[in-house]
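Usage

Read records sequentially. Each one opens with the input sequence:
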Amino acid sequence: MTQPHCAQASPYEVDLEEGQNYFWCTCGLSQNQPFCDGAHKGLGFKSQCFTVEESRKVWLCGCKQSKNPPFCDGSHTEIGKE
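and closes with the structure output:
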């Protein structure tokens, strides 16, 4: 597997807490989307650890194509347009 699987073609709306570490799924195979559950093991992917500076609602990428991971940048709107 060289390209991530599109977990869903829209972002995940989540509430995050200040200072907590989160692990975003980069492969798209986690059963705990948008967070990592280790499904990537042996596939050449690794989770992306991130924190937020203040508690807030965010939209995390579900298509796994964002140029600003783990946050959605609208890349999902281009899926299937090639």
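Summary fields computed downstream for this record:
- The two ends are 20 Å apart (CA to CA).
- The longest strand covers residues 12-16.
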